[in-house]
Amino acid sequence: MNFKGMKTLVCGIARSGVAAANLLCDEGAIVSISDIKPMDKLKEEISNIKYDITIITGKNPDLDDTVLKQDMLVLSPGIPTGLAYIEKAKSAGIPVIGEFELASRFCKAQILAITGTNGKTTTTSMLYEIMKAHNPLSEVVGNIGTAFSERVKNINEKAFCVAEVSSFQLESIERFKPKVSAILNFSEDHLDRHGSFRNYVNVKARIFENQDESDFLVLNYDDIECKELTKRAKAKVLYFSRKDFNINGVFLKGDTFYLNINGEAKYLLKTADLTVTGTHNYENAMAAIAMAHVMNVPVEIIVASIKKFAGVAHRMEYVRTLNGVVYYNDSKGTNIESAIKAIEAIDKPIFLIGGGCDKGADFSLWVKSFESKVKKLYIIGAVSDILEEACQKQGFYNYEKIKTFEEAVKKASTETKSGEVVLLSPACASWDMFESYEHRGDLFKKIVNELK
Fold it and tell me: Of 99, 151, 323, 357, which one has the fewest beta carbons inside 10 Å?
């Protein structure tokens, strides 16, 4: 697509929006960029814009003077597609695409894309390590932290592009067509944006809507919503499972992983060979193995890479042991299912720090998972009253509402003893108190490492 001279409004001045603006300017487009935040809150982001372009801050762009004069709108993932001025642009026939869609149009390499409610970052990181061992030119982009638009012009056509894709990014795709896609699982998340669980599933399913019989789709056989998507797929489908040993794909039987293709099961490795633990990580590993296999990566490279993988930051990340108390940073546990899996992965008494920005989830399942494992919950953030009500309804009363994040961490450190665990796994988004889940996790690590 030729962007030269095309008047384009990029909506959202954050990492993805800035990268999209720079990419479009590189291609000769006439670019404007907007954000509802005031200019003084965007100084760092704006400093990364490489060109002299029109910058609109502190409000939504004016409909007549700006929006309707554009040839195209490009949305950052954080911009909801249903905003009034975006709907008006669509009604006027102005193309509206997302930053991820924009970047994908420049990508000459084969794309291996991963989505799902939980495990995206870990699976993406695992798969990237495998593909990089197979082809050192391989890159990793997307929701994992590197904007696709920022790297796409540097990705070699002979490389593999491994991408973590969120529902926000999939909302605004058009032609995006990965060679291999994977959907890991579904649980309630981002209902405040998508409106219902069914809408959320349908948006996630867009990852394979442009695939054909020459492509591959990897699905979680144990997740009923994932399994049902087989009926909608045109791509060749492989599965991963912890429960069924007759699937075409990767399965876990007891403590052993097998690759099963056309009825021939091949031994891969044991669960004890992995550095990361927990059933969720076994599922992540199986998805990565299946995706690498269909790209003809030798089994020995796949197995060696999986064995070496040490985990990712902010996902059950070991921080420190102090006075016999172990501290884990699971700041990326931003939804109920993810936070439950963090609790399940620990076999010691837990002092849990949770709460933050509500995404419309039902916290009752999370509180039920506490059972005898969670000794105390320190509640933080905007969701405090809702969480308190959920605790009371489930008969869990050993909780305390804390005003500041630092106070919660320090209080947990004084109330624990050797053999116990302090776990940050919020089950909520971070936006009420922090810039991102990374900001929240980094602050947790800083406070913990400064404890005496």
Answer: 323
State the helix-helix crossing angle for 437-450 and 405-415, rounded to 10 degrees: 40
Q: What secondary structure does DSSP assign to 105-153, as a single string?
A: TT--SEEEEEE-SSSHHHHHHHHHHHHHHH-TT-EEEETTSS-HHHHGG
The tokens describing 131, both together, are: 């593909």
* Residue corresponding to tokens 């909520």: 428
Strands 216-220 and 160-164: unpaired
Structure tokens at 154: 């540097």
d(CA 377, CA 387): 10
- pLDDT tens digits, 330-362: 999 998 988 998 998 898 999 999 999 988 888
> 3-class SS at 243?
coil
Residue range 363-378, pLDDT digits in tens: 999 999 999 899 999 9
- CB 398, CB 372: distance < 8 Å: no
Per-residue b or e along 409-434, where b marks 16 or more CB atoms closer than 10 Å to that residue's CB: bbbbbeebeeebbbbbbbbbbbbebb
pTM: 0.82
| Spatial distance between the Cα atoms of 108 and 158, rounded to a whole number of angstroms | 8
Lookup: tokens for 315: 């996902």
Q: Do 285 and 118 form a contact (C-beta atoms < 8 A)?
A: no
Neighbour count for residue 64 (Cβ, 10 Å):
8
